[in-house]
TrEMBL record:
The keyword Transferase applies. It holds the Pfam family DNA_pol3_delta_C. One of its GO terms (cellular component) is DNA polymerase III complex. It comes from Salinicoccus sediminis. It catalyses: DNA(n) + a 2'-deoxyribonucleoside 5'-triphosphate = DNA(n+1) + diphosphate. Belongs to the DNA polymerase HolA subunit family. Residues 188-307 form the DNA polymerase III delta subunit-like C-terminal domain. The lineage of its organism: Bacteria, Bacillati, Bacillota, Bacilli, Bacillales. This is DNA polymerase III subunit delta.
Length: 308
């Protein structure tokens, strides 16, 4: 993920030659505050500098997270307030925003630096992928790039992993055929496709795709919730478009990635608000059946796709 790479870059710029002694990674869910402080204050072997990266530092947010340890936040506040060692301490937070009401967050902002790592938009992802290709002396035309994005979406981690696979597979030039042969379709893109098949009444294809996803060990309940979320997005986008909202404003209002709004805006004109409302009601009903029926969930889900 971009946050992980940013943390690695920060540590790398601080350390002359990072190694297992000078660069230490800890998990906040498993490591006590006392242990983190002790690690930060312990000098590394054969090095003048040390960096400690702490993953999932949820105490800086308002999230309620199950942790294997109880954290003495007052102890951490005191350490950060009076920090007198030379260790670079990096707390990674996977959250849209910090909780600025918390004392620990206020101290961190006073004593340290906050680096926000935002999601890339589609243009930035395309530029990033072009850079990867260029660095590996591989070319890729727009048709192949479009095919790649349509299969992966624009999740940084997904596109990075899939492009690495593609670069290893190809010999200098990536074609649309290479993309189809090598690149996996992301779950999010499959949900877009499955929802579109349902709305287009292509039931046999929808059931076929559903079976593929279940064979890939996707849970029916998770798939149902993702489909419900997609119908809800389509309905909300259609409603806001009818009120004159632009795509960027819709993304901000709904707090979803602009790329999802772009895909929804592209397809939503084919369906009325009444149709989308009806599909959402049917999803609610099948959700109830999932929780109350003794039928096999895979079978129940197939019946739902055939009925909706």
């Amino acid at each position: 993920m971009r946050i992980t790479e940013m943390a690695r870059e920060l540590a790398g710029s601080f350390l002359e030659e990072p190694d297992e002694f000078s660069l230490v990674t800890l998990n906040y869910k498993e490591t006590t505050v006392e242990a983190i402080i002790e690690e930060a204050q312990t000098l590394p072997f054969l090095s003048d500098r040390k960096a400690v990266v702490v993953n999932d530092a949820f105490s800086f947010t308002g999230a309620r997270v199950k942790s294997e340890v109880n954290h003495d936040i007052d102890r951490l506040v005191d350490y950060l307030t009076n920090k007198n060692d030379d260790t670079l301490l990096v707390f990674k937070v996977f959250s849209e925003q910090l909780d600025n009401r918390k004392k620990i967050t206020k101290i961190m902002k006073q004593k340290g630096n906050v680096t926000e790592v935002a999601e890339m938009n589609e243009q930035e992802i395309r530029q990033y992928l072009s850079g990867m290709l260029r660095d590996n002396d591989v070319s890729m035309d727009k048709r192949a790039m479009d095919a790649f994005i349509s299969r992966t979406g624009i999740s940084y981690e997904t596109v990075t992993n899939e492009m690495h696979k593609l670069i290893l597979y190809t010999e200098g030039t990536v074609t649309a055929g290479d993309v189809e042969a090598v690149v996996s379709v992301s779950l999010e893109q499959n949900i877009f496709k499955l929802t579109d098949l349902i709305l287009s009444k292509k039931k046999a294809q929808a059931v076929g795709l559903l079976r593929e996803l279940i064979l890939q060990k996707e849970e029916p309940m998770q798939l149902l919730h993702l489909i419900i979320g997609q119908f809800r997005l389509l309905y909300q986008v259609k409603l806001l478009l009818s009120q004159g909202y632009q795509a960027d404003n819709i993304a901000r209002s709904l707090k979803v990635h602009p790329y999802r709004v772009k895909l929804a805006s592209r397809d939503v004109g084919r369906y009325s608000q009444e149709v989308l409302e009806g599909k959402m009601v049917m999803c609610r009903d099948i959700d109830y059946k999932f929780k109350s029926s003794y039928l096999d969930r895979d079978t129940l889900f197939e019946l739902f796709v055939l009925e909706i």
